[in-house]
């Protein structure tokens, strides 16, 4: 009887960890002995990241270190990665004594870890740990796990798993490590988040996040069901309606998207641009290219940073065989996605 791939991986991890401590004890015992705890020394290590840069962590550098062990095949890790990027991205610009190392235990090249921005960030490193060397050195038990080391080279905080308070706890403890003033006690951050997490708005947000993850896995009907639950919680949620309409457009059900949003309108500029985008997107799918172009041009005027609107315009021009305009629109969409400042010389966008 063959073992599932995940089970095989877990067995390999246990064997490696047992060998690393020179013991043939039970895997659980070996793991318990190796797990880092607050107050212990952060292990020194050296590794090469995906961009080929060597990262050396040595004691006495007076730098704060965050090491996150994640999996490219795990939804919890995907959510943790999103939170880590948001928290680190929200730090004050003057923070320059933080190193972030994201350790991926499976293939990061086919996942959401490998991005140009991350690879270029000076103090942000994504490394592969397919042989579980760093896993064993840090005594990891589960993924995701984040270890935060203070400037004194001691473990300040360890967090295994991902829950609703993950981002708040990470932000509070990272601020503490960096000496950034904050109103919330790091030990109370999770409790504060728990209260906020029980509001209708927070529950709607959770359903929409789950819908996005289900859609990424190809489970469209389940994703739609999650959005419908969000709408049931808050029938006036424009975000939920537009999320469902966008999903319908993405799976080629433009007519349903149009029926859903009907005569919806809003005074907010970006929301109005999004409604125009959905209508133009749906009309393009239904073959009314002239109306679609008109709606999408209005959408880009209201929101010049809408990559999807420019992409849909490109499809319209491509269908009309207007090659130059199609290329210019596609380029503009890519330029927005990759934060390029200007389109090619001679383009219309």
Structure description:
- The protein is α/β, with parallel strands linked by helices and about 350 residues long.
- The protein has helices spanning about 5-20, 25-35, 75-90, 115-120, 135-140, 165-180, 190-195, 200-215, 220-235, 240-250, 255-260, 270-285, 290-300, 305-320, 325-335, and strands spanning about 45-50, 55, 65-70, 100-105, 125-130, 145-150, 155-160.
- A five-stranded mixed β-sheet has the order 5-4-3-6-7.
- Helix 11 (about 255-260) runs antiparallel to helix 12.
- Residues about 1-35, about 115-120, about 190-195 and about 340-349 have low confidence and may be disordered.
Summarize the topology.
Layout: H1 5-20, H2 27-34, E1 45-48, E2 54-57, E3 64-70, H3 75-89, E4 98-104, H4 116-120, E5 124-128, H5 133-138, E6 145-149, E7 155-160, H6 166-178, H7 189-196, H8 200-216, H9 220-233, H10 238-250, H11 254-261, H12 269-285, H13 289-302, H14 307-319, H15 323-337
Parallel strand pairs: 3-4, 4-5
Antiparallel strand pairs: 1-2, 3-6, 6-7
Helix pairs in contact: 1-2, 3-6, 8-9, 9-10, 10-11, 10-12, 11-12, 12-13, 12-14, 13-14, 14-15
């Amino acid at each position: 009887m063959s073992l599932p791939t995940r089970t095989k991986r877990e067995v390999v991890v246990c064997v490696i960890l047992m060998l690393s401590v020179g013991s043939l004890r039970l895997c659980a015992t070996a793991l318990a002995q190796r797990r880092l705890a607050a107050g212990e020394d952060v292990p020194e290590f050296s590794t090469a990241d995906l961009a080929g840069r060597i990262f050396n962590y040595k004691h006495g550098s007076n730098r704060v270190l965050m090491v996150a062990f994640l999996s490219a095949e795990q939804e919890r890790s995907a959510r943790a990665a999103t939170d880590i990027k948001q928290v680190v991205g929200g730090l004050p610009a003057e923070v320059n004594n933080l190193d972030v190392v994201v350790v991926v235990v499976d293939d990061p090249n086919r996942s959401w870890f490998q991005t140009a921005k991350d690879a270029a960030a000076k103090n942000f490193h994504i490394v592969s740990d397919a042989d579980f060397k760093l896993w064993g050195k840090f005594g990891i038990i589960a993924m995701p796990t984040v270890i935060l080391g203070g400037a004194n080279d001691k473990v300040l905080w360890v967090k295994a798993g991902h829950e609703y308070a993950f981002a708040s706890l990470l932000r509070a403890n990272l601020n503490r490590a960096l000496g950034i003033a904050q109103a919330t006690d790091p030990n109370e951050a999770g409790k504060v988040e728990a209260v906020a997490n029980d509001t209708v708005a927070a529950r709607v947000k959770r359903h929409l996040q789950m819908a996005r993850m289900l859609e990424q896995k190809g489970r469209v009907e389940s994703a739609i069901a999650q959005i419908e639950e969000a709408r049931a919680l808050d029938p006036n949620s424009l975000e939920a309606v537009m999320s469902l309409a966008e999903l319908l457009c993405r799976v080629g059900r433009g007519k349903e998207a149009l029926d859903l949003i009907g005569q919806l309108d809003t005074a907010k500029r970006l929301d109005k641009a999004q409604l125009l985008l959905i209508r133009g997107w749906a009309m393009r799918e239904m073959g009314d290219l002239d109306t679609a172009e008109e709606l999408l041009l209005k959408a880009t005027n209201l929101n010049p940073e809408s990559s999807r609107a420019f992409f849909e315009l490109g499809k319209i021009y491509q269908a009309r065989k207007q090659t130059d305009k199609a290329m210019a629109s596609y380029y503009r969409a890519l330029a927005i996605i990759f934060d390029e400042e200007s389109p090619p010389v001679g383009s219309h966008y």
